[in-house]
Design goal:
Elements: E1 3-6, E2 17-20, H1 28-38, H2 43-46, H3 48-51, H4 63-68, H5 70-75, E3 78-81, E4 85-95, E5 106-118, E6 122-133, E7 139-150
Parallel strand pairs: 1-3
Antiparallel strand pairs: 2-5, 4-7, 5-6, 6-7
C-alpha cells in the first residue's frame, strides 16, 4: 500500500520510515538492454560466461541501473500531495557498497531525512533511500534524493 502524505504534514514524518517496497529481480535481458542504451558494455555486466567465474557466479547489475529505478520504486511506496509541481532537484551521498547479482532479489526502503522551505514558496525534502539485497547485510545502493515541491 502506498503511503500518502500531504505536503503540510511532511515535517511530522522526518526521521521516520516511509515504507519498504516489494522484492524484485532484474534478469540478464534487462541488464543487456540497459548496457546497450547507455553504452556501458563492461563484461562484468554482460558476459555471462566470464562473469560466471566470479564469486557471484553471474554478471552484476549496473549500479546506475539500480539507481535509475528510484523514481519507479518510490512511487510504489509513498506519494506527496499538495504540490502543483514536484521537481527532481538532485542526489547526495550516492554509494554502491555491494554488488547486485543478476537475478538477485532486492527492494527499496525509504526514510524521510529532512524537510525545509525554499524560495518561491516551495518545500524541499530529502529521502534516504536504501536498496537492500535479500540475504545480505550490505545494501547494493544508497542515495539521498532531493525533491522540491511548489504550489
Amino acid at each position: 500500500m502506498t503511503l500518502t502524505i500531504d505536503a503540510r504534514d511532511l515535517p511530522a514524518h522526518v526521521g521516520r520510515s516511509l515504507g519498504t517496497g516489494r522484492w524484485l529481480a532484474l534478469q540478464q535481458h534487462d541488464v543487456d538492454g540497459f548496457a546497450e542504451l547507455t553504452g556501458d558494455l563492461q563484461w562484468v555486466h554482460i558476459d555471462v560466461e566470464r562473469a560466471g567465474r566470479r564469486p557471484f557466479g553471474s554478471p552484476t547489475v549496473h549500479g546506475c541501473f539500480t539507481l535509475s529505478l528510484l523514481p519507479k520504486l518510490s512511487i510504489e511506496i509513498y506519494g506527496v500531495t499538495g504540490f502543483g509541481v514536484g521537481l527532481n532537484y538532485g542526489l547526495n551521498r550516492v554509494g554502491f557498497p555491494a554488488s547486485l547479482p543478476v537475478g538477485g532479489e532486492f527492494r527499496l526502503g525509504v526514510e524521510l531525512h529532512e524537510v525545509r522551505s525554499v524560495p518561491g514558496g516551495g518545500v524541499e525534502y530529502i529521502t534516504r533511500n536504501t536498496f537492500e539485497l535479500r540475504g545480505s547485510s550490505k545494501p547494493v545502493c544508497m542515495a539521498d534524493w532531493i525533491v522540491r515541491g511548489y504550489p
